[in-house]
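Meet the record:
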Amino acid sequence: LAFRRVGADFLYDLVADVDGPVHTAILRVGDNLHEPDPGCYIVHPSLGGGRFLLEAFGHDSAGKQSESGHEGAIGGSIDELHPKVLVHYTDGGFCGWQAGAKWVARVCASDWRVYLSPWTMDKDIYVTSPPDDPEGRHVGQLVLSGDVFFWATSTLISGGINVWTPEGGARPFIRWIDDYTREAGDLGTDGVDLVWSYGEGKTEPSEEPFPIRLIVTAKFTTDPEKVKATARRLRSQPSKCIGCSGFVVGCGYAAHEGCCNNSYVVRLSDGVSWDLPGKYPDPMLDTPVGLTCEEVFVLGELDGRTTIARIRLDSLGPGTAPD
């Protein structure tokens, strides 16, 4: 897991095995640790394929990020003693990043162009931007799996999922061009299964939420025709917002942030689901961050403290049959 430990006078950004060693630890100390604008700082860890990435903001510990606007990223193998500076901007731009085994993905708010780079950062591979999108849409929900890159495009009206491969380039994947009555989003994958949210049934473009919302799965593929032919309904989607949070997928299960500040797990073989402990106001465990064959890991609050809880799947009871 990639996570942060916070104390009164320190911050640790860590990558560690849940039952084993710490691989990477970055310590920050100083008098301005908990200020809203602490100068130079790192946030938003991304972890994938044995590599990690942290976004960097600000210029130095004495300056203010809001004044300097410098931004970049550091990262590399989870076992590197000194993570590298991958890129450093000085023009005040803001970018979002995603780490994968082979690629670093980034999209910058200045022009919403999406690039993939190898970890050497010696070249940029252009993927897409609003002018090249079939509906002129911006990018969100970046997902890397091996050589493959998925991303979502959406508006307040509708949205869909797209794919890039080295052989085929960028193309729509689970998407209905110029059709506001259907939407797909929240894609998650472990390289074996794909899981996503699907909505349909709108009668007006502004209708919200979709009257029919489903959780759908298919075996991993990059072929739009194959995923369409093999997609399988698991159960209804309790979350009203499609495209707000991605699925965490692993070992034949998928976990997702649900409604009312709680989350759930669904089994991919038969659609049986379990609501996870933790509904508002306390405890509030609302963001799944990992799955194994035995446990689900969920970010949230317990006793007023932010933490990651581990919950055994066999402790959840018989579950709820799909509706």
User: Anything to note?
Assistant: The mean pLDDT is 89. The longest strand covers residues 41-48.
